[in-house]
Amino acid sequence: MAKLIRKRRGSPAGAPPGTLTVSPDAVAPRLRALAYGKDRIEEVEGPDLAGIKALREAHAVLWLDVTGLADIDLIQRLGEVFGLNPLALEDVVNVHQRPKAEEFSDHIFAVVRMVQANTGADTEQMSLFFGADYVLSFQERPGDCLESVRERLRRDRGRLRQQGPDYLAYTLIDAVIDGYFPVLERYGEEIERLEDAVIATPDRRQVERLHVIKRDLLLLRRAIWPMREMINVLIRDESPFVSSQTRLYLRDAYDHAIQLMDIVETYREIATGLLDVYLSSMSAKLNEVMKLLTIIATIFIPLTFLAGVWGMNFESMPELGWRFGYPAALGLMVVVAAGLARYFWRKGWLSDDKPPTKN
Amino acid sequence: MAKLIRKRRGSPAGAPPGTLTVSPDAVAPRLRALAYGKDRIEEVEGPDLAGIKALREAHAVLWLDVTGLADIDLIQRLGEVFGLNPLALEDVVNVHQRPKAEEFSDHIFAVVRMVQANTGADTEQMSLFFGADYVLSFQERPGDCLESVRERLRRDRGRLRQQGPDYLAYTLIDAVIDGYFPVLERYGEEIERLEDAVIATPDRRQVERLHVIKRDLLLLRRAIWPMREMINVLIRDESPFVSSQTRLYLRDAYDHAIQLMDIVETYREIATGLLDVYLSSMSAKLNEVMKLLTIIATIFIPLTFLAGVWGMNFESMPELGWRFGYPAALGLMVVVAAGLARYFWRKGWLSDDKPPTKN
Amino acid sequence: MAKLIRKRRGSPAGAPPGTLTVSPDAVAPRLRALAYGKDRIEEVEGPDLAGIKALREAHAVLWLDVTGLADIDLIQRLGEVFGLNPLALEDVVNVHQRPKAEEFSDHIFAVVRMVQANTGADTEQMSLFFGADYVLSFQERPGDCLESVRERLRRDRGRLRQQGPDYLAYTLIDAVIDGYFPVLERYGEEIERLEDAVIATPDRRQVERLHVIKRDLLLLRRAIWPMREMINVLIRDESPFVSSQTRLYLRDAYDHAIQLMDIVETYREIATGLLDVYLSSMSAKLNEVMKLLTIIATIFIPLTFLAGVWGMNFESMPELGWRFGYPAALGLMVVVAAGLARYFWRKGWLSDDKPPTKN
Amino acid sequence: MAKLIRKRRGSPAGAPPGTLTVSPDAVAPRLRALAYGKDRIEEVEGPDLAGIKALREAHAVLWLDVTGLADIDLIQRLGEVFGLNPLALEDVVNVHQRPKAEEFSDHIFAVVRMVQANTGADTEQMSLFFGADYVLSFQERPGDCLESVRERLRRDRGRLRQQGPDYLAYTLIDAVIDGYFPVLERYGEEIERLEDAVIATPDRRQVERLHVIKRDLLLLRRAIWPMREMINVLIRDESPFVSSQTRLYLRDAYDHAIQLMDIVETYREIATGLLDVYLSSMSAKLNEVMKLLTIIATIFIPLTFLAGVWGMNFESMPELGWRFGYPAALGLMVVVAAGLARYFWRKGWLSDDKPPTKN
Amino acid sequence: MAKLIRKRRGSPAGAPPGTLTVSPDAVAPRLRALAYGKDRIEEVEGPDLAGIKALREAHAVLWLDVTGLADIDLIQRLGEVFGLNPLALEDVVNVHQRPKAEEFSDHIFAVVRMVQANTGADTEQMSLFFGADYVLSFQERPGDCLESVRERLRRDRGRLRQQGPDYLAYTLIDAVIDGYFPVLERYGEEIERLEDAVIATPDRRQVERLHVIKRDLLLLRRAIWPMREMINVLIRDESPFVSSQTRLYLRDAYDHAIQLMDIVETYREIATGLLDVYLSSMSAKLNEVMKLLTIIATIFIPLTFLAGVWGMNFESMPELGWRFGYPAALGLMVVVAAGLARYFWRKGWLSDDKPPTKN
Question: In CATH, which superfamily holds the domain spanning A30-278?
């Protein structure tokens, strides 16, 4: 089950905007630089600031990926080196941001939320800065869905190496969005399984599972919905840092985000509908149980009463002395039972309301 | 039941945009060319690229229909011949697209989703490219609802042969939309049948069926809703490839798409309302069952108690020796039973709450 | 119960647009011409085409009303005489249209849906064409709510005779809209009756009736909602066939359509709320039944057990020989019963949860 | 309970627009004129037309208030005197109008709906005309919430006497809107009471009351919602009859109308939520009842069976002759009962699920 | 539980706009002035009007905070000193305002609603006026979430001291919005607790608590939603009193408000979903209870009947004299019981439908 609540502010309430405060569960940062142009590519693990500057100068595009946000100093120095907006930097360390994009005078700042196959609906914030010759990405934790992008850069497949940082930023955003599809597919498969199960053998645990699924989908929607808007801002705003060709690709990412929303909403409606199926199954089962009880009770209670009558100890109960009194009594009981059974059979209780092949 | 989940990507996650990857369940392609002008028409099964070029030059309009997407090479070569946008081509083979229309510099690309009478809510993607002198259509599987369009072309009925490719594209889109009506009618007929059945003889299987219908309608809505928007894009954008007269016809198709949405929404609301009817029927039936049990139990339990009292073996139970003790006891039992029956009759339990002619 | 499904297409699927095909349940047409100006009026039943032309020339305004759509030839010839758009004519015979208005170069085409007091939620399509000097109306079946308009024309009351065809068209649309009010009032009265009934004596048939009402209101909404939009198109579009004064009157009709929607929505919400009342009533009744059963069972089952104990045939059961054993046993039973009754009385079961004056 | 249905038309269906027809339950009119300027004020009960003209000439502003709409003649003559639009006059006598504002060439026409503290959700139509030097108000029935406005005029408090008719019209509209607050507060108080009651002692009558409240709030919403739009029209339209300063005040009235909508919606959602609380309470109570029944039945039914076994009359039942047969039998019964009680205790049925302090 | 109803008007209904009337539960005012510029800051508790004027002249920015609204005179005099709009002043004392912002010729008026950690969903109105050199804030009650802002002013941290009153106003609004996060976090934590509890041990009190939470969230939404709009007005309107830099910061506050709405809506949907889980748990538990009852009754009622038969006192019941009559009878009973148990076991009633680890 995804966590519902995230502590919002690392910084103490009332701190001035632009104050960076480390979040208690931040991990130590790991830097990775990938600098490339059309013809060559250089990859450096854990570069220092001087190394970063050198890489930036030597190549057309520098992608600096920072994983872990525990080192405020480092982030601030990076902010100075790349001239990043302090308000945006605050958003980087306060990892509760809704996805959004903001244009500043010399760079664009975008926030996306990333899922991973094994983390379900728990999303991780990735903050992106990109300017004329760099992309800076900040992630909360190690592990991401960007390995394929790195591979493409290394192997020089496609047009990635020939394009500017805006195209790299698009590629990262698209990879993050694509990362939602397998997660949603898993939810879809579970919903399909639950559909069959709720119909075949309704069970309380299914409802609990449906609740958790609906809640996770709600959290995923909260992450996906504003990404749609975020991409739209990148497409619409006439920023010099986004080329018109990249805008075309972003339209494709926008379509994918809408598709995600579509899937999330469809799944939520199906899950809600399943609850109704469950309740009606329970209601049908209760009816079935009560019918059985009623049939048994209605047939035997009068018979037991008759047996009780002839078990009374009155002295003058002439029928007790009759020769065929006992068989007659048993016969009467059979008649009563048969009459009642016939009554239930005519009501359709003895055959109806139970699917023949299931349960 | 329509499949809920479709594997989204044929291409591996992280592949560069524009990469075409064959989907695992794609079928081998079959080409069919129909080239025509006002006066003549030529139909070729399985033309090669040279043949396609020849047909395109010889006639005013060429309609090339590709059924089956397993041959990536062929699709790429067609893309080169007609100058199609690579991003659009990727959408052709990734058959999970929402309906949409995009204008490129020298052609228009549109995606629609097609149902067939016998496939229910499972939709098949049809991708359309049309430019100055051709319409290119890609379908996932053999079998479509376009045979009547082919017939109209062959028989020269109506204005179809005299118009350009935009009118043919409209005709195809309209045929696809018209294909939804019989499918929806079948759902409507089933809902009408279920309405009668839920009222007459509520049954758990009806709820399951209603759930499946609601879910299928949800999937149909997901296919229809963006088609409305797609047609709107074709009408609104001032593309040179859509004549103003065709725009008028597209308005008609737009009306049909809205009508489809109307029907889908109406059916979904009725199906949802039927669940309430079912639940209230079950609730009424349970009440009926419980009343019967309560009547029987309430009448016989005190009588059985009385019989039990006089069945006790105390030595000094004077009434047991009375001459009319036994008849008096039976009489008392009759009085008690009659009193209780009268109580239930006054409460209205013996007649009420059960429709006279049903169940 | 209104019919849920209407066969959509008279014409075979795939027929070219503009093909007129007679619907299977169309009735034979009856023509009625009403031609008038400020000073005179002429009324002709069943005019031929020549007569229509003569009337059109002799008077300021000609209203030709065609009831019954079985004669495609006639409709096509009328289309030629008045120069009507073929796409619009197709909509005339395909009587499944949503209300809409379309402006053509020399006339306006409007579709409305008409109810009649005795047909409930079943709507009939009326198609209107109006140009510079005529109004052409097509109805599906005999019987309409336009008789009062004819009367006003004949008696020269109000401004109707002095105005052009746009004002007559407005008058017809307004009469159609006004025709919904008595139908909705009937639903409103039934809902009020059901409100009282559901509270006083909840019954399964009420739920079925509520379902039918909700469904009919849904169908009525489907007819009314687009009429609003249709009138809006007439008001907004700067058509030369609608005078600015008529626009003012159309604003009034627009208000009425909104009022209708208001009423439909209010009724639907009340009907939905009533289902909740029904379910809670059933739930309360079930509780009441179960309480009665539980009281009876809980009081008598222990007593019957006691009687059973003293009815056992053990040889040495000393209390059976006691002199006051029997009265003591009866006394113990009374004490147990009184204690249990007191327990239920303190729980409030013996008085609570039942409205004092009802049921 | 507010009346759901209002007969819509006084005028017969199909009457020409602008026909005034008296509604069957209209009351005889009473006129009241209040004419004032900065320095003096004159108040006349029941003025005739001549007196009205004189007052209008002698003072800066004339407020003529007509209560009761039974006298069509009078209304028509007033319409002539003030030059009122005939369509608007028809709306005055057809007291089913939604609130709206319309601008005519020489006056503004506005319809509001008024509640009174003691009439609940039943609203009364007030029609307002205001031009350069007059305000004309038409009410359905005696009794209104405008007395405070009259007092303010008489006592010359505030700026009312120095302003034009637009400010008076604003004041009347604002007084009508303010009149909703106490009515809504009463509903709010009842909802708060019901909240406590449903939680403490759920009862079927509460559901019925909640239904009535929801329905009344629905009717109030229907009256308030279009008033918002109506005020907006007055603010937005650049009418010469509304000064820019009055527009500022109207913005305040607009805020109040939005606040009313806010409250209505909040109350409706809370009332809907309360139904869920009720149903879950009933469900919990039913569970409690059934548990009691099950405990009693499960403990005593086996015991009664045992007693029945030893009450059988077989000749050779050795245990019946044992010396301690009877105590042993009783002991066995105690053991069985204790075992079952222990089972229920471990299941938590003997203590759980019942709030300790309530019920 | 937050109070649902607030008496709306201090002023009597119908009082002229701009009349200030003290609300019955207003507290006596306490003034606090904080005047500052880049270099110095002066703080005065309870200044008089002359002191206020002096402070305003001596410093760049004056923040006058008035806590308690019981002294109408004081408020009016402050209004004169700062030239505040009388309609706005009326909104200050009528503490039922929705958050809003209005621009006047020489100042901006904004209303926000403030929560405090310990007051839950009860919001307090804070009214803000700010002009060229001052911020005036009015609060209803002592205690607020602004202490951190005061601290920042005193300690000269951040840019607060160097900026104008618009930045201070932004800081106050942002502090108020930030104040909602801990309150919502508390609700979120409670919902998480309830989620576990409803699944583990469903209980009626949880539903009541969920109702209260939903209702409080509704009230919070009512406070937060218009704040979003209010900030938007400040950003969008080209007021000279809001610098373009402050606008940038307000965008940040706007994001926070949207985030709050997001959280509120997510929580409400989860709480609603939990009610379904509760109901389905109750339904499952009822089924379980009824199954137990039915098993016990169905097994023992026939046995008891058999015992009753052989307890009858007919003279000629040959089996009673058989040698192995008694064991045979007992054997038959065992067979019947075993047969029924087997029947229930095959139905899956003896094991199914109960989560293994939870009750």
Answer: CorA soluble domain-like (3.30.460.20)
